[in-house]
Amino acid sequence: MLKVPFDKLSGPQRLDCLNWGEAFPYKPSVEFRIGYDEAGVHLEWTVDEQSVRAEQGTPGGEVYEDSCVEFFFKPSADDPHYYNFEWNAIGNLCVSWRTGRFDAEPAPASVYGLVRSDSSCGSKPFSEKPSEGPWTLKLFIPVEAFWKSGIKSLRGLKACGNFYKCGDGLAVPHFVTWAPISTEKPDYHRPEFFKDIVFE
Hints:
Distance between the termini: 12 Å
Radius of gyration: 16 Å
Number of domains: 1
Shape: globular
Order of helices and strands: EEEEEEEEEHEEEEEE
Number of strands: 15
CATH architecture: Sandwich
Oligomer: single chain
Helix content: under 10%
């Protein structure tokens, strides 16, 4: 269980699950910190990988092909739907509301205008290049960005989710997760493996 503190960030949470290590053995160093306030969720990622790429510059694009971090969030255990928030290294976002890989409702344009990002890699797209050290991504997801759920406050919310790092289009593809996933091939769209997230 992940306990999300109010008005401050949690201690570092590492992505240590290499679920498909035989086929994809590379494991970058990835950690995040999370907190919330009355306005929404705050996330800070720190990623140290051998190369970094951020070619996608259009909201809603295939950021998973780039150096990508992801937050999949299911606000209610009674609802099969979850949100997938995905960002590349320059903070370009793709988000939708779905029940699985093949059942998705893309976010409206207004949601993209709500979510804020600040990346140490800047904001301009770039092709894959050797990493010069860890990169960081600071994010804010206001409660209004959970546009299908009508959430007014996160305080006391008992939710579930998972956190991911991938780079499908990199020279060395990789797939690491916070909570383990027991599937034959990489598949992040598996809410049955989500872990409890409680907003204290």
